[in-house]
Request: fold
Amino acid sequence: MGINIYYLMTSFVKLLLHAHLRIVAKVFLGILGFSGVALYIGGIAYLVFRKNKKTTHVLTLSTLEDQQMANAEGDVSMYSLPREDIVSMQLPQKRTPAEFD
Reply:
């Protein structure tokens, strides 16, 4: 990302210095260009440093007790379980010490 910003900024400065524009046009283009880059960097900084306010939950039935309880109730149908391709995208669950035996 840093290389892209460096490349864009050096190209923009070269354009401003070597373009055959009036001084007023160069000033307005400079103000718009540098403020656009500042907005871009500010947006990236926001996405990096923001706090997550809502937690996301894994879609699978994570423990054996949950799966047995769902099967015992009898109301679990094929349509209420998550699709296998979505389940495979989830992060692995934390293992309990009993599973290592």
Observations:
- The chain has four helices and no strands.
- The mean pLDDT is 76.
